[in-house]
Amino acid sequence: MSSIIFPRPLRKGDRIAIISPASAVKPEYVDGAARAIAARGFVPVVMPHAKGPADGSFAAGERSRIADFTAAWNDTGTKAVLCARGGYGCVGILPAVPGSMLRANAKWLVGFSDVSALHAMLRSAGIASVHGPMAKHLTEEPADDPSTEALFRMLTSEDDTEHSLPTGPLSFCGEAEGRIAGGNLAVLNGLASTRFDMLKCGPADDDVILFLEDIAEPIYKVERVLWRLRLNGTLNRVAGLVFGAFTDYRPDRNFPSMEEMIRSRILDWGLEGIPVAFRFPAGHQRENLPILEGSWARLSITPETTTLKMSRR
Hints:
single chain, 313 residues, alpha/beta, Rossmann fold, Glucose Oxidase, domain 1, 2 domains, 7-stranded mixed β-sheet, 10 helices, globular
């Protein structure tokens, strides 16, 4: 998609709504996030069902979660929406929200994990969003936590965002530019062949830097999804790959780690000519650097340093 809306930077006094669009969240995390937002000079607005009452494993009933999202998005004074938690449930919001509504009042959406479904929805509407920390992180980590600081810099400035870190031993060096897209692999794979399919890069698309992360997925299941992306041509068209944190899984009889499985497939498929970063600090772990979904990114990997620079164009 060539035309991306970047919501305006946040200003002190702007309202930031907190919603729970998926699984139930501890109320103290919602309250902690509200305190962290207020401490930075913004006005937190806890939406009516953000703290329940829970509906089974969900934060609230589907209609209630849709109502919270819609009310927060349509409120012209609210300039950002922070998702309290992922888990499962965001997919139920997608068919209830028209793209015209999203574009008419574009604002920042922040979250990761199951919130990747909402990032895919915004991507289909041509709106940038932030894959980044949620309520638990804002509650438990100190105010000067690097991921939190990077998140609020991204939300309050139009400057480029650059993450630079040491290159891991499994990475493939190189440089590439493209529009960054991705998130939680299992969630995005569940949207395959829908209008929200963010993992299918067609020939007419911009060059794409594909970012992927996951939690508690066995190695073979991730390999299966990579095969789908290989067979539908996506991996042959991406300009670069960024693999974030893959956590809470066990080695299997084929591979000692997720990264070694992925590296093996990249070599088998002849993709070693593009830059590929492993263990980028984003995803289900304490260090969770924000990714500006929809931004124009430059991925540069040398033997010493991996740099991801994201621009608003």
